[in-house]
Amino acid sequence: MAHFFFLAAFFWLNTMCFNIWWTFRDLRPVSLEKGQETLRLRVYACYAWGGPFLVAGLAALLDHLPAQPEYTFLRPRFGEKQCWFYGDMEILAYFFGPIGVLLAINLMFFAVTARELTCGLWKGEFVKSTTERATLGRICMKLVIVMGITWVADVVSWAVGGPQYIWYFTDLINAFQGVLIFAAVGCQPQVRAALKRFFSRNPQTNAGRQGNGHSTTSHGMPSMGDSVTQNPSTKTAPLETIC
């Protein structure tokens, strides 16, 4: 079970990286209808749960086969030497190998997305100022955190070996990745304002606004699709409202 859920975490991370790249790959409208969003989420779920199920299921199946000298495949041999895989080859085949492939794909998504933000379609004239360069730098740092680029160091530390203290910094970042993602995404001014409106809203006030022809949802935080479809000059929009 631990093997399955560890893999699922990285498959979901890969799914999130793909979704970020898909959002920023061009300036086309990305807002989808509710049915399309549901379908896309189901496809993501099938991939993110199905991939780990296949890898972990294959490992469990091979591990429960009776040991035979003529077998040429690599069995994981859970629990024979430790409460994990038997040795490095088994860990590479069933754990760090798949994770390494996923992280390599994540790096590719990050590189392409960062390029689009810095010198691609999303780059506008506003990036010339020092303030906007700093904003762009913060966005790239957020991408590093959200896309889990620091997890590459975990695979490298296993492959290279050496003193453990060398990797304490990256291990600490990975351990607090959830907190960092919340700080990068949940602490945005737009998010705080939306949460403040959500928790302090008055049903009677909302009803009065709707009666006067004002929709309460019009005051919500604009989504990525809204910023693209409603503003034809998206390239000149502040980057902090995009990411």
Question: Secondary structure elements and their pairing?
Answer:
Elements: H1 2-24, H2 34-64, H3 88-119, H4 130-146, H5 152-160, H6 168-175, H7 177-186, H8 189-200, H9 203-211, H10 224-229
Keywords: Membrane, Transmembrane, Transmembrane helix
Transmembrane segments: 6-24, 44-62, 91-114, 135-153, 165-187
Main location: membrane
Report what the structure shows.
- It is a single chain.
- Helix content is 65%, strand content 0%.
- With 243 residues, the chain is mostly helical.
- The chain starts with a helix and ends in a 14-residue tail after the last helix.
By secondary-structure content and strand pairing, the structural class works out as mainly alpha
Total count of helical runs of at least 4 residues: 10
Q: Helical proportion?
A: 55-70%
How would you describe the shape? globular
Low-confidence stretches: 213-243
Count of strand segments: 0
> Roughly how many Å apart are the termini?
35 Å
CATH class: Mainly Alpha
CATH architecture: Up-down Bundle
For the biggest sheet, the summary is: none
Oligomer: single chain
Element-by-element helix/strand order:
HHHHHHHHHH
Q: Which radius of gyration do the C-alpha atoms yield?
A: 23 Å
Mean model confidence by pLDDT? 71
- Name the beta content range: under 5%
Fold-level CATH name: Rhopdopsin 7-helix transmembrane proteins
* Count of all domains: 1
